[in-house]
Structures are given as structure tokens and as C-alpha cells.
Design goal:
Layout lengths: L2 H46 L3 H4 L3 H12 L1
Length: 71
């Protein structure tokens, strides 16, 4: 193989690496945003609706209920 062919492969690999880095950071940002939203909703519900303290005494119960409702 010629040196020119290896340059094309390296350019292709470099582009794929850069694209994966961009998508990876977007997925991290999405995860942080969703986690933040869930935490805020949990806190606000428990402070404003005291009856829900009994139902959602554990955060995991809230997560499971939210998953069922939103899927």
C-alpha cells in the first residue's frame, strides 16, 4: 500500500474519533440534565405534597414510578 492510502485511512479514523468525542460529550450532558431534572422534581414533590412522602419514601421507588409513567 502506498503512503497516500495510509493518509486516507488516518484521516477517516481521525474523523470517526472526533465524531465519537462530540457525541460522547452530548450524551454526558443529556445524562446530567435528566438527572438534575429528576432530582429537582423529587424534592419539589416531597416538599409541596406531604402525602407523597409516604408513597415515595425512597428515591428508587420514585424512579421506578417515573419510568413507568413516562414510557
Amino acid at each position: 500500500m502506498s503512503l497516500k492510502h495510509y493518509g486516507g485511512i488516518m484521516q477517516w479514523a481521525g474523523r470517526r474519533f472526533w465524531e465519537s468525542r462530540q457525541f460522547y460529550s452530548a450524551y454526558i450532558a443529556l445524562f446530567v440534565a435528566i438527572t438534575n431534572w429528576i432530582t429537582i422534581q423529587y424534592r419539589e414533590l416531597l416538599e409541596n405534597v406531604p402525602v407523597l412522602n409516604v408513597v415515595f419514601s425512597n428515591f428508587w421507588v420514585f424512579m421506578i414510578a417515573g419510568t413507568i409513567v413516562f414510557t
